[in-house]
Amino acid sequence: MLQSLGADTVQVRTRQDLNLVDALVMPGGESTTMSHLLSTSQLFDPIAERIKDAMPVFGTCAGMILLAKSIADGRLDQRFYGAIDIDIQRNAYGRQVESFETDLDVEGLESPFHAMFIRAPQVVRVGADVEVLSMHEDKVVLARQGSVMVASFHPELTSDSRIHSLFLQEV
Amino acid sequence: MTKNAARTTGSMQVKRGLAEMLKGGVIMDVVNSEQAKIAEDAGAVAVMALERVPADIRRDGGVARMSDPEMIMAIQACCTIPVMAKARIGHFVEAQILQSLGVDFIDESEVLTPADETHHIDKLAFDTPFVCGATNLGEALRRISEGAALIRSKGEAGTGNVVEAVRHLRNIFGDIRKITQADSAELFDWAKKLGAPLPLVQEIAETGLLQVPLFCAGGIATPADAALAMQLGAQSVFVGSGIFKSDDPSPRAKAIVEATTHFMDADILAKVSRNLGAPMTGIGMDQINERYAERGW
């Protein structure tokens, strides 16, 4: 997706990989697994430092959970970054049978964006400094604060690259 | 901004979406809440709730069926990651029950005793995604045409022996590679040979990819086994008896998770493989009297 937009990409699995990148995408997956692996790979703190130094970062679904200020219903030992002033409820839309696709109006895009919500988290509080880019059923689903952008849906699952373009404008 | 477009649930894209989210991870068989916690703590991306792990099913014999809903619900209540459960091949009522329980993925599994010797479940009729086993590309494509959102190898469950899963992965990826080299006339013959729908074969010729993610299952017992499956092209691994039939499940579960993430990094693999205690004993293919992989049509 990002490659099709002209960006060079690498998969970051180690600290050495992290040194190669100017910006980071934290994709969907299971946030408990990601949090665990960030610790075992000794990547958690180096990434926290880079975020503090304003490295652009885009978190989708599980990635959004890891970037939030607080997680309701998370695991007590789950570590996260607090990089954007929102609170998250994990799996708030329910189990997989409740997962859905829908069209979203997105700030800055001329036509609706078709979005996939997979066991998605919900934003339950938004800080005053957070710029809301899209809402669905009165919940914030796409937001930005400084160099941090988050989505509760998965723009990486569809072929529409416009949300990734919005992120690349920051890089 | 608050205008609400309708939600569409249960679409093929939504089903495949969850399969995509499980990529690069480990799905662990668990028989109770305690094991489910160990699995989640170790970094599993999902658990498979079942009453007996395959090694025990193999030992006990008899008819293996869907697990007690009570036991599945207890596991759903104790962990936050997706919970999968198994239905017998062709037993669409077990699948209806699992969907009603809100199971996140249904495994139409050869590990249980088949309920229908001709038909698999019509998986398109469900909102819950299905994973099915396949020993070769034809079987994979038949399951995909029935609506499976995820395919896994059918390595001999409960043996701790990875040889069959390796055969299935090599079969599937080998045929995909050959099909991408075939000309348009040869694709008709491929569809006939595989017993698979022509449009799916043509799609593979064009993309070089299976339509849904392909995971490895069956016989994985060590971190090296998991990394082998990943290097062969599997996108995630299921570990059944391999964890909870070993001497010390928790460290082994963590090691297999790390090995699956860092599957190309031999230094990390060497590190996580140390001091795990004895893996499950395992059995050779000539010592088993029933091959589960032969179940499925």
From TrEMBL, chain B:
<dbReference type="InterPro" id="IPR033755">
    <property type="entry name" value="PdxS/SNZ_N"/>
</dbReference>
<protein>
    <recommendedName>
        <fullName>pyridoxal 5'-phosphate synthase (glutamine hydrolyzing)</fullName>
        <ecNumber>4.3.3.6</ecNumber>
    </recommendedName>
</protein>
<comment type="pathway">
    <text>Cofactor biosynthesis; pyridoxal 5'-phosphate biosynthesis.</text>
</comment>
<dbReference type="InterPro" id="IPR013785">
    <property type="entry name" value="Aldolase_TIM"/>
</dbReference>
<dbReference type="GO" id="GO:0042823">
    <property type="term" value="P:pyridoxal phosphate biosynthetic process"/>
</dbReference>
<dbReference type="InterPro" id="IPR001852">
    <property type="entry name" value="PdxS/SNZ"/>
</dbReference>
<keyword id="KW-0663">Pyridoxal phosphate</keyword>
<comment type="similarity">
    <text>Belongs to the PdxS/SNZ family.</text>
</comment>
<dbReference type="InterPro" id="IPR011060">
    <property type="entry name" value="RibuloseP-bd_barrel"/>
</dbReference>
<dbReference type="GO" id="GO:0008615">
    <property type="term" value="P:pyridoxine biosynthetic process"/>
</dbReference>
<dbReference type="GO" id="GO:0036381">
    <property type="term" value="F:pyridoxal 5'-phosphate synthase (glutamine hydrolysing) activity"/>
</dbReference>
<keyword id="KW-0456">Lyase</keyword>
<feature type="domain" description="PdxS/SNZ N-terminal">
    <location>
        <begin position="12"/>
        <end position="217"/>
    </location>
</feature>
<dbReference type="Pfam" id="PF01680">
    <property type="entry name" value="SOR_SNZ"/>
</dbReference>
<keyword id="KW-0704">Schiff base</keyword>
<dbReference type="GO" id="GO:0006520">
    <property type="term" value="P:amino acid metabolic process"/>
</dbReference>
